[in-house]
Write a structure and sequence with these properties.
With 92 residues, the protein is of the alpha+beta class. 32% of the residues lie in helices and 9% in strands. Strands 1-2 form a two-stranded antiparallel ribbon.
Length: 92
Amino acid sequence: MAAPPPVACALCGRPLGTRTEWHHVVPKSKGGTQTMPVNPICHRAIHVAADNTTLARLADMEAVRALPALAPFLRWIANKPADFNAPTRRAR
């Protein structure tokens, strides 16, 4: 019997929408194979907040979630619907 499909984003905890992306906890370029389901906007936010070297060093979604650069995003996205989308910009 197959495992049930994931129902929540690994970053924000909101329900997954109609489109799910799979984030490599340790980037593929750094040898990672484990993936976690995330909403597209959350996936972009992760890569804006941290480069691949930092993500490889953290190697854990809890540690990624605790990045200070993601705190404002996580507060902002908390009450948005699953399929919410908006531009994600790099910090200046």
